[in-house]
């Protein structure tokens, strides 16, 4: 059975109350529960983790090697700053889908640059919390 890690970065623990006009009103626990439910329907084991700390996200990516078949990563603001996350993704050679709830390309200019985009399979953004199901489908399709 494939197993995916759904990894969320800084400030995503505040989903539901954080700028609902931008990120929607669904909480992170609702999103994580839905990922697990959807994974069960698709025959995938899903584990979820959130951290506000860059090093913990790096550690989680390292630990995923040998444990998970792939990672769905919403790196939050670290997307736009973190060479460390990019290097971690390159180092583990696991398929990673980059995910954003909002359409980062339609927002401030600094959000248009993703440091991780070049080392992931692809990017899903702008579909709100529905993007997580899209990412599960995309990762599953990639592995088939
Ligand atoms: C985000 C987009 C980022 O620019 C932002 O810093 C976030 C959330 C998204 O899901 O839309 O924290 O990754």
Structural notes for this entry:
The protein has helices at 20-23, 28-42, 54-64, 83-92, 130-143, and strands spanning 3-8, 45-50, 70-74, 96-100, 122-125. It is α/β, with parallel strands linked by helices. The protein has one domain (3-143): 3-Layer(aba) Sandwich (Rossmann fold), CATH 3.40.50. A five-stranded parallel sheet has the order 2-1-3-4-5, with helices on both faces. Helix 4 links the parallel strand 3 (70-74) and strand 4. Helix 3 packs parallel to helix 4 (83-92). It is globular. Bound molecules: 1,3,4-trihydroxy-5-OXO-cyclohexanecarboxylic acid. 1,3,4-trihydroxy-5-OXO-cyclohexanecarboxylic acid is lined by residues 11, 74, 76-77, 79, 100-102, 104, 111. 1,3,4-trihydroxy-5-OXO-cyclohexanecarboxylic acid binds next to loops.
Helix-strand layout with pairing:
Blueprint: E1 3-8, H1 20-23, H2 28-42, E2 45-50, H3 54-64, E3 70-74, H4 83-92, E4 96-100, E5 122-125, H5 130-143
Parallel strand pairs: 1-2, 1-3, 3-4, 4-5
Helix pairs in contact: 3-4
Bound molecules: 1,3,4-trihydroxy-5-OXO-cyclohexanecarboxylic acid.
Short note summarizing the structure:
With 144 residues, the chain is an alpha/beta fold. 38% of the residues lie in helices and 18% in strands.
Provide the CATH topology.
Rossmann fold
How far the N terminus sits from the C terminus, by CA atoms, comes to 12 Å
Largest sheet: 5 strands, parallel
* CATH top level label: Alpha Beta
> What general outline do the C-alpha atoms trace?
globular
CATH architectural category = 3-Layer(aba) Sandwich
User: Rounded to an integer, what's the Rg over CA atoms?
Assistant: 14 Å
Strands side by side in the biggest sheet? 2-1-3-4-5
Helix content: 25-40%
The number of distinct structural domains comes to 1
Classified in CATH, the superfamily is Dehydroquinase, class II
Individual helix count: 5
| Mean pLDDT over the full residue set | 97
**In terms of per-residue confidence, which ranges show pLDDT below 50 for 5 or more consecutive residues?**
none
Please state the structural category.
Answer: alpha/beta
Give the tally of β-strands: 5
Give the H and E element order.
EHHEHEHEEH
Q: Which strand-content bin applies to the residues?
A: 15-25%
